[in-house]
Write a structure and sequence with these properties.
By secondary structure, this protein is an all-alpha fold. It is built from 19 helices and no strands. About 80% of the residues lie in helices and about 0% in strands. The protein is globular. The two termini are about 15 Å apart. The mean pLDDT is about 85.
């Protein structure tokens, strides 16, 4: 059984990681192209529009997927109810948000031009909710090959449309049309990928049973969206659309590593944790190994992105964006620490602690609101990054203690791995700061980055071999 779970984990990790790597590459190519074709005002307006669509997609998502994955046995009888409820909620949420859009755009964002795109983009919420609920079977059993095909093909389709429509319209409308086209493509393809055909049918008892678990996830989604969108809202309110556009671009670049790691963790680790949560020893072993891998990857990303922030921004966005390097570095560190923090969420969810997810985000909102206004007024866009970083640093230690208390998992191994990796990252980043970086040669600074990552892995492997601790142990064990 242990070998079977290992194979499932490896297969799921392969397909999800491959998917996210491909999506990240496509996203970076799109970022590089559009940043040279559109203005900061275009991106600021697009950020306002996606602010509303993300509210509809994320905040009003009812959390049924997590409930169905966590539930043992066959879940077919629940699908019609979850599909019907999701569409109804998406339609209702879209109508409510559309009614509020004009007022919020005018009086909060001070950008009336964002009203129409913000209304149009709300169609995306219904497209997402109407997708085939049968896809949950692939997620539940960690059979992710077909989801890989669906997501990658949809993203390639969207990328081609982005380049075409941005070139034609020379405005944010190119981005919005491409986003809606991708969602429609994904909706249609979901019914080719899985044979399940849902019906409009609602059973109150089934809904109530699932919602007792997923209701807290929906509240978490609302608070998660608010916590993740506060910086966009406050920057747009205090600094205007143009600076929001600058912030949106560096925020997008900084968030790619977080999205890459957390998507893999949510797609693979949560179902795996749900399978072994009744066996304390296996759960502890799975937790230690998964966290070691996450810490290892986060450390490597930190070394490269902090040391070569100027080169990365210049390469991806162009020279006109290089004044955003320092906000980018601060945001990156904040998001990487947040990645470590969010890696605990699948653990809590596997044990049924969905209420705790909600409370974590409430805490983040309270801290973020006060810090954002204080630091943005004082330090401009850099202040948004500082506020985000301080907020995560306040919450992260408490989260470690909290997970130990609620789940009974031992944190000694985790803390040792985190400490070893942190020291290695600080030392290597410090050394690289004294090395003359190659500002103009992609080949040279790319080579430097690769050498730095190899040195990082060698350090961790040496510590793992000698002391038998740290993420290096997983590198030594990779062939087993």
């Amino acid at each position: 059984m242990a070998e079977s779970l290992k194979k499932i984990f490896i297969s799921g990790t392969f397909w999800t990681s491959s998917q996210q790597i491909i999506l990240t590459i496509i996203g970076l190519l799109q970022l590089a192209a559009t940043s040279r074709m559109l203005t900061p005002v275009d991106f600021g307006t697009y950020a306002v529009a996606t602010f509303f669509s993300s509210l509809g997609n994320v905040a009003f998502s009812m959390g049924f997927s997590a409930a169905l994955i966590q539930k043992k046995g066959d879940v077919s009888s629940y699908l019609n109810t979850t599909w019907t409820a999701s569409i109804a909620m998406a339609a209702l949420a879209s109508l409510i948000i559309i009614a509020l859009v004009p007022t919020i755009c005018s009086f909060y964002f001070h950008n009336e031009a964002a009203t129409l795109p913000s209304v149009v983009i709300m169609i995306n919420c219904v497209f997402v909710a109407a997708s085939n609920p049968g896809l949950i079977f692939y997620q539940k059993e960690i059979q992710l090959k077909k989801l890989f095909i669906l997501n990658v093909s949809a993203r390639i389709f969207s990328f081609s449309l982005v380049l075409f429509f941005v070139y034609i319209f020379k405005s944010y409308w190119g981005l919005i049309i491409a986003l809606l086209s991708e969602s429609l493509f994904r909706l249609v393809c979901s019914y080719f990928i899985h044979p399940y055909r849902p019906k409009i049918q609602f059973a109150w008892q089934l809904f109530k049973e699932l919602y007792s678990f997923s209701g807290w996830i929906q509240l978490k989604n609302i608070t998660s969206w608010l916590a993740g969108s506060l910086d966009t809202a406050v920057v747009g309110n205090l600094l205007g659309t143009s600076k929001l556009g600058f912030f949106n671009r560096v925020q997008t670049v900084a968030s790619y590593p977080r999205l890459l790691i957390n998507t893999v963790v949510d797609s693979v680790a949560f179902p795996l944790y749900a399978k072994v949560n009744d066996d304390k020893e296996r759960m502890q072993g799975a937790f230690n190994k998964i966290q070691d891998v996450i810490i290892l990857i986060v450390g490597a990303i930190a070394i490269v992105f902090i040391s070569y922030g100027h080169q990365i921004i210049s390469l991806l966005l162009g020279e006109q964006w290089v004044n955003m390097v320092n906000p980018f570095r601060v945001l990156l560190v904040a998001y990487l620490i947040q990645t470590l923090l969010l890696s605990f969420i699948p653990v809590l969810r596997a044990f049924g602690f969905t209420k705790q997810e909600f409370l974590i985000y409430v805490m983040k909102i309270v801290i973020m609101i006060s810090m954002l206004y204080l630091f943005i007024k004082r330090y401009d866009l850099l202040g948004a990054g500082i506020a985000t970083l301080l907020c995560v640093l306040i919450i992260y230690p408490g989260m470690i203690v909290y997970v130990k208390k609620k789940t009974g998992l031992l944190m000694g191994h985790y803390l040792v791995s985190l400490s070893i990796t942190t020291v290695a990252v600080v030392v290597l980043t410090g050394i690289l700061s004294f090395v003359e970086m190659s500002n103009h040669s992609l080949l040279l600074w790319g080579t430097e980055a690769i050498v730095a990552c190899i040195a990082y892995c060698i350090i961790l492997i040496a510590i793992g071999y000698i002391l038998k601790v740290g993420p290096g142990v997983q590198l030594l064990d990779i062939k087993k």
